[in-house]
Design a protein that fits this description.
single chain, 2 helices, 71% helix, 0% strand, rod-shaped
Length: 73
C-alpha cells in the first residue's frame, strides 16, 4: 500500500490549459481589435504620422496583458 500523504504525485495539465489559454487569448484579441483600431486612428490623426504601433499590435499587447490576469485569478 502506498502512502501519498507526504509525497503526493504531481499531475500536470499542460495541454488542456494551453488550449484553453489560446481560446481565451483569441476571444480577447478579437474583442480588443475594434477599440485598438479606433485609438490607433485617433493617435495617427493627432500626430499626423503612422509610425506608432498598428491596431493589430495594440490589440495583441492588450490580449497579452488581459489573458494571464484571467488565469491568475
Amino acid at each position: 500500500m502506498a502512502d501519498f500523504t507526504s509525497n503526493t504525485p504531481i499531475t500536470t495539465r499542460a495541454r488542456p490549459l494551453k488550449t484553453e489559454f489560446m481560446i481565451y487569448f483569441a476571444i480577447i484579441f478579437l474583442a480588443t481589435l475594434p477599440l485598438a483600431t479606433i485609438t490607433w486612428a485617433l493617435a495617427a490623426f493627432r500626430s499626423g504620422s503612422l509610425t506608432d504601433k498598428g491596431p493589430i499590435a495594440r490589440a495583441w499587447t492588450q490580449a497579452r496583458i488581459i489573458t494571464p490576469m484571467i488565469f491568475s485569478a
